[in-house]
Amino acid sequence: MKAKSILTAALALLCTACTAQTPQQQTEQTTMNKQGKTLIVFFSHAGENYAVGNIEVGNTKIVADYISEATGAEQFEIVCEKDYDMPYMKLIEVAKAETNSGELPAYKGDVDCTPYDTIFIGGPIWWGTYPQVMFTFFRDHDLSGKTIVPFVTHEGSGLASTVSDLKKAYPNANVLPGFAMYGHDVRTNKEKVIKWLNSL
């Protein structure tokens, strides 16, 4: 299936109300909702990054752009009010402290998710999951009934706990299996992203 069909093919979301699901419903709910509008919500970190050095465009932003180019999806970039422009080793300590304390940093701007049926959610792996500012977004937005497509950039952590964290944040959403890509690959391996999109 071509990536462009993500926005045009018809597949109805199942209601996750209180009734038990049949095996057929459970199978359908592991697939992507291909009807309606698509949004990409992501956080990306420019500056000093592991394995790629000091970069002007964050790794996750590049993957988000590939998705937009292939699917026509709109974007909302989560920009934290806190300044993360610091050496990588210092950033690790900040990320660890935020995760351990459950801090929910504020972000700039907002987006109305109501019109969107499918929402890609992407970010780098910071201390085993998405950056904490993304959990602020999860707190602020009810995505029940929507199809959520997780993706991350990393340098060895894979998806870490991002998929389970999304399922915990949105128990009434259709959370698909996630996609993980090495940050050092994003600038030269666009085809990997396109192959993943075509598999949805």
What is the helix/strand order?
Answer: HEEEHEEHEEHEHEEH
Count of runs of 4 or more consecutive helical residues: 6
Cα-atom radius of gyration: 17 Å
Q: Find the count of extended strands (DSSP E, 2+ residues).
A: 10
Main β-sheet description: 6 strands, parallel
Description:
The chain has helices at 23-28, 59-71, 88-101, 132-140, 162-169, 190-199, and strands at residues 37-42, 47-49, 53-55, 74-77, 79-80, 107-108, 116-124, 147-154, 174-175, 179-182. The chain is of the alpha/beta class and 200 residues long. 35% of the residues are buried. β7, α4 and β8 form a beta-alpha-beta unit. Strands 1, 4, 7, 8, 9 and 10 form a 6-stranded parallel beta sheet that branches. It contains 6 helices and 10 strands. Residues 1-33 have low confidence and may be disordered. The chain is globular, with a radius of gyration of 17 Å.
Write the layout of secondary structure elements.
Layout: H1 23-28, E1 37-42, E2 47-49, E3 53-55, H2 59-71, E4 74-77, E5 79-80, H3 88-101, E6 107-108, E7 116-124, H4 132-140, E8 147-154, H5 162-169, E9 174-175, E10 179-182, H6 190-199
Parallel strand pairs: 1-4, 1-7, 7-8, 8-9, 8-10
Antiparallel strand pairs: 2-3, 5-6
Helix pairs in contact: 2-6
